[in-house]
Structure formats: structure tokens, C-alpha cells
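Inputs:
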Amino acid sequence: MTRILPAFTLVALFGPVAAGLVGTLLPAAGYLPAAGFHEPSAVAVARLAAWPGLIPASALSLGTGVLATSASLVIVVLIVAGWSGTRAFRWIERALSPLLSVPHAAAAFGIAFLIAPSGWIMRLAATPLGVTRPPDLLILGDPWGLAMTAGLVAKEVPFLLLMTLAALQQARPGEAAAIARSLGYGRVTGWLKTVFPLVYRQIRLPVYVVLAYSMSVVDVAMILGPSTPPTLSVQIVEWMGDPDLEMRLVAAAGALLQLLLVLGALVLWRAGEKLVARYGRRWAAGGARHPGDGPVRALGLGLTVLSAGAVLAGLAALAIWSVAGFWSFPDLLPESLTGRTWARHSGDLAEAAVDTMAIALIAALIALILTIGCLESEARRGTRLTPTGLWLLYLPLLLPQTAFLPGLQTLLLSAGADTGHAPVIAAHLVFVLPYVFFSLGDPWRAWDPRHGLAAAALGASPARVMLAVRLPMLLRPILTAAAVGVAVSVGQYLPTLLIGGGRVATLTTEAVALASGGDRRAIGAFALAQTGAALLPFALAIALPAMLWRNRAGLHV
Amino acid sequence: MKFPALLAAALFLPIAVSAAPDPDDWDQVLKEAHGQTVYWHAWGGSTSTNDFIQWLAERVEDRHGVVLEHVKLTDTADAVTRVLSERQAGADEDGAVDLIWINGANFAAMKEQDLLFGPWAESLPHRAKVVEDGVIDTDFGTPVEGFESPWAKAQLVFMHDSADAAPFAAMEDLPGWAAANPGRFTYPQPPDFLGTTFLKQALVSLVDDPERLQTPVDEKDFATVTEPLWSWLDALHPYMWRGGAAFPASGPAQFQLLTDDEIDIAPSLSPGEASTAIANFQLPDTIRTFVPEDGTIGNVSFVAIPYNSGSKAAAMVVANELLDPEVQLRAQDPAILGYGTVLDMDKLDPGDSGAFAALDQGIATLPPAELGEALAEPHASWTKAIEAEWIERYGAR
């Protein structure tokens, strides 16, 4: 078992990715027998180049991705540098953790309800200003993608913050920061000069994930991004849906371009890191004690509260719309409340919820089995995850989804394989598995092996040690990892849409499909249900161990 | 290693091939349909349509034991792609699509490529009650010939907020109206169905010779024929909502804009849609509809069955149920759906036609006389060409 499971893990991670890349490369090179293209040619590339939106769409993808990543990173660094160890920081940490599992689409819908010219913020300002009509402003879907960038930042700040906190535990910044402070450095300056270089090394891969994700995201771009033209990834998905099969060639060429863009941006980012490192060293050696520490701390706190507040207020707006009767501008609240929207959609919601949870639970369970198999094999052989192994785990997250999922769909169709739940679960697993691994890896390795030794000395076999001692003791982290897996799966839009072929409807695909209809009540209900599906498992992961082990007070792992 | 190979072979073995049902033997069709599942690929962007299909699903399950699943599309072309790719992959049995809500270019493409089962539509028991009309027999210039069955009639109208704005008189007056009311008009972004229909509406009204549009598009004179449309749009766009830099994604998305008082006039695909939306709190009750004096184009919604559906009998049962007077009455009720019926009142039982006559059409729905006779849609081949040119000019700047 301990030999087979790591091999299965590699297949589960890279099988779909490799197949998808092949399914992208061949049509991009003009080879797609299903559409009557039997000879390699430059037709796909030529038709992509002829699309008038090519330059703006590519620039949009690059610009929003780099801006969203930089902004998220700066906010996280400022809040950690300025506030870690304080009471305000603990409060922020507690508020941001659940936000991590709020699906991107739900957060984007909520933010759209806030910032639209007819949204809550404008309504707040309208009555005092005497405005009765929403201003004709291009806020949602602005051509520079700023609304979309804001939506991405609000979701990536919690992710990078939790990654940074995990890195901090390993970097042991206490001493360095204490020495810096005793030398008279301000809190932020001292942290940036002594701790940041250690921490950044640890969070580099998550930052790359944020960059690759932000550049190629589809659901957030459809909700908050522009449409004339849309981002490259959204356009690729539109080409995939064209009745003219030839357009799949163009989609494949676009997917390849998206891949190159992301790789280019990663190289660019790496160059930026070197540049920052060079100037940073000079700055650190310069000896300035606190340049602008106070305002920077305030800024960090303000931006963090703003980004968390946007998601929370957005969720509140979704909730109110889902029970709103008639509600016109500039009223702050609806004229009446009604359960009609929920009643109308209860059938659809229940069906989608069942599909959503079935896919998420199966994907999370498989991910958990594979992860435990890998970790146990690691423990028995006394090896640790190598840097190469870490990179392998991150690789599927660093490749844009739009680069290999369209190819995977074309390939599945060409092979005559039926679409449905099984391929969707396999596609979800590619993204669920790494996060389950990251979540369970540290607590698994931190388990005291002397428990196992004691059990073995009493005659227990290795399998029994694992089943009777290790797994029960690690129940809480295992359930948390499962909850992480479920949340990741619930949030997946593109794998469900493309690989499910329309037969698999989850809360996420239903909510995003409603986006084009603009029915805020229905969107509110579906986005809220989607958020619930992602959050509920976390509540269970906290409650279950407490209930099961209430007679074992000492069992805190 | 043999086991997985065997397993794979077993999984991919075709299920026993069944002969297609004979539409003329309706008892046999009903028998075969019992227990089958129909995946109806239908546009899912409108909550009232989704509710209606849900209601229909319960009805066909109760009456005929047919399970109806609504696969919600954002674009009907997705379903066409699906069937096309299945055929290219050799998946000729039990494809993913059993029934498609279809018309126009998608129907033309599927019929031309032999992707449809049929003819069957004229054998349906309820067919005898359907109105005899050019738009039922010819779908955007393509003869229907029993390969699709009608279920709703639509005609383009314009919604306006009577509290804020007066209608414009003719299509050529719209840029002038917009200049006087900047930011108060918009239409859905083509290739959205309604957005493209709006473009065709403008084209039909603006060209010198509308007859030319009834024949297939030709590269040679496309530019000359459509020139009036583009100069008209160039004049209109700067005065539109968001200066023409952004468009609503679909027809229903305009409801929110009207409710929030962001716009005053927007096109609508069916005469009863606005009344339905008012009943659902999606529009203020000051919305009314109007038709410009030169008339508007109309079309019919059909359902078609792909050649590789595994549930053809059940799909026909659903198509027939859609023509049941009770179902048509519900579809026409503006409180439910507000779609125009395809039934001929003279062919119905007095009880049924009485129920239609008694139906409250809703506050914003025009009476048939004011609606006027629908203008013919341009030949289906124009659609794609106009969409491509629009995207080139305005969709990717």
C-alpha cells in the first residue's frame, strides 16, 4: 500500500494535467481530426492572431494578475509586519480564516452588489446627496479590470495571510524581531528588514499560485471583469462553447498563449524578486530605524479591514437580496422581506447541493486517502518531502486552468468517453489534492512517534498502529484537511463546467450561470448556498472531534 | 494487467442498440417513454423559464412517467457543439442531449448536418391544434419539415419606464432619442440572442430593400447592405448606457437596470415578458411596452431531438405536452411566463379558448392589434455575419 499510493497520487495529479496539455497542444498546432483538421498547420495561431481583442485581452490578463498579486502581498506583509502579536491581529486572524473558504464566485457577487453604481455603497451616499438615479459610471466591468482586481485581492489576502502565518511558525521570527527592536528599529521596519526575507522564501510558491490563478481566473472575471473584450481566459471558454468546431483550434491556441503569458509573468515576478532583494539589502544595511512606521501600520490595518469588510458586507448583501421583495434605488433596504426566492429555487438548490456535496466529499475522501498513503510511506521510510516533491505538488496550481482543462475536454470527447461525475471528480482532485496535502502534512509529521512505538511494543502491527492510534489521535487535523478539500472542490467552476459537459450542475456552476441573467435574488440565494456548502464542513471539523473525544480531555493534537 | 483492460472494454461496450420509435404509433411511443429520462438543454438565464420547466417536469413525470432534467445553458450553441462533437467521436447512442430549445441558425446548422432525429413533429397528437402560419413552417428561412416542434411565439418589443420616458416613434429615431436622453438606453451584448435580434430588428427597418435579407448572406454585398446599420450604431453608441463601453449580459439583466432606474428603454424578446417580470418584483409597475411604427420582427421557439438521443420517445412526449392547451395557457400567463401561444384559438374546444380569452394579459402587455403582424427574421445566415462584424467593430476595442 505504501508504495502504490504515492504512485497513484502522482497519476491523480499529473494524469489529467498531462492529458489536458496534449489535448491543447495538438489542436493549437492545427491538428484536430474531429473537426476535419488532419494535418498540422498554423491555422489556429493565425486565427488567434486575427482576433481584434488579442492584445487588450492579453494585457488585461497580465495587468490584473500582477496587480492583484502585488496588492495582496503588500497588504499581507503590512498587516503582519505592523500588527503580529497584538490583540487586533488575533482578531483579524480569526475573522479572515473563514473567509478563506468563501468561494471566489460568491465573494465576487457580493462585491459586485456593493460597488455597482446601484450598489449599497452608492445607496449610502445617494440619499444625503439627493441622488435618485444611479450615476452612469463604468465601475463593474471597467476596461482596466480594476473591479475584478479588487475582487481578487479580497479573496487572496486571507489565503496569503494564512500561508504567511504558517511560514512564521517555522521561521521563528521572535528572536530576530526582538533583536531588531532592541536596536531601536520600529516594528514594521524591523520586521521588514529581518523577518520578511525568511518568510518570503517560505511563501514564494503560494505567491506564484496567486499570480497564476489571478491571471487565468474565469468565474470572477465573468462577474466583475469587462466584456468588450473579456479577459483571455473568459474568451477561451467562449470559444470552447462555439458551435463551430473550428473555434476549438482557436481556443487551443489561446490556451497555449495563456500558458505562455503565465510562465512569462512568473519569470517577470522572479526578476522583480531579485531587484527587490538587491535594493532591499542596501536598504536593510542603511540603518534607518523607522521611516514612516506609524502611517504604514495604520494603512496596513485599514486595507486589511477594508478587504475583509468587503467580503463580509458582500455576503450580507447577498443574504438580503435573497429575501428581498421589491427593492429599488436608492433604498438601503427592501420594501418587504419574503421567502419566495428560496421557495422558488428550493428544488434546484437541493439538487445542485446534492451534486456539489457528493463530488466534493468523494474528491476530498480520495485526496485524504492518497495524502495519508504518501505521508505514511514517508514516515515508514524516514524520508521527508524534498523541494522537488513540493514543486510537484504546486505544479498543477501554477498552470492556468484554462491551459489544460479545454484540452482535457476535447480529448475526453475525441476518445468517446462519457462526461459526467467521474471525470469531474478526477478534474477536481487535481486541485483538491495539493491543498489537502498542505493542510495535513505538518500535523501528521508533528505527531509524536513514541505513541506508535508504545503501541508496537504492545504487539500492534504497523497497520493497527495507524488505524487504532495515529488516525484517531489526528482526527481533528484530518477532518480539517477534509474540510479544506471540500471547500476547494465546492469553489471549482471551470473543471465542473468544461468536464461535466452540462450534465453536472453544482451550486457554483448554477450561480455563475445566473450571472448573465442578473436576477440578484436568485444569485443571492445560490451564492449563499455555495458559501454554506464550503463553510459547513469546517464547522463539523471543529465540532466532531470535540463531541467524539469529550471523555479524552488530554487529546489535543 | 488484464483485469483493467477487460474492465475498460466492458465499460465502453455499446448498450443494446434500440430502434428509433415510430412517431405515428403514439401508444407505442407512450409505452416506450415511460421511465426514460429526457435531458432538455434549454437556456437557463431566466428564473421564470426555469420555474416553468420545473413545473413541466413534475407534470410529465405524473402523467407519463417521464423524468425531465433541465440542463441550463448560457448559449444554445453549447448543445449543438455537444451533439456535433459526439458524432465526430462516434458516440451515436444515448448522447448527452435529448431535447433542445432551438431555432434559427442553430436549427439550420443541425438540420443541414443531419444531426436531428425526424421528421416527427407533425405526428404529435396535439399538432392538429397548432396555428397554420408561415413562421411555424419556416424557421429563419429554413423549412422546418417536421424536424422541430413549436412551443412559443415571440415578437420583439421595447420596454419603457412610463414614469421617466416617452417611446421613440421609429427605429431611425432611436439615436436622436438617445442623444436627448444620454445613458438611458442599452441592449444585451451580441452574440446574446436578444442583442443579435435587436441588431436584426434595426437592420430590417433601416435597409432600403428588406427582401434582400430573406436570401442567404453574400460576402460581395454584405458591406453595402449592412452599411446603414453600422452608421446608425455609430450614432447611437456614444449616447448609450456606459457610453456603449459595456452592455448587459442578457435580456433579464436589463430588468435590474430598469428597476434601479439606470436606464429607461430596453428591448425585450416577448410581448408578455415585462408583465411577468413586474409580477415577480423584477420590474417596477411603471414599465410598459411599445412597438415602433415600422413594426418588429418575430420568431417561434421550437424543440428538436438530436439523432443520437437515447430517449427519443420521451422527448416526443415532452414536445407534445408542451402543445397541451393547459401547458400553453400556463406559458402565456404573464404571472408565470408570458410567452405567446402557438395554438389556433379556432381549433380549440370552447372551454380552452375561453380560458385563453379570460387570461389577464398583464399591465405591460400590448393587445394583439397594437402588436401588429411580425416582420420576417432575416435568413439565418445573416445572424453569424452580423454578430462577427459587431464583435469586430464594438466587442473588442
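Chain A touches chain B through 57 residues (CB under 8 Å). Flag for discussion at group meeting.
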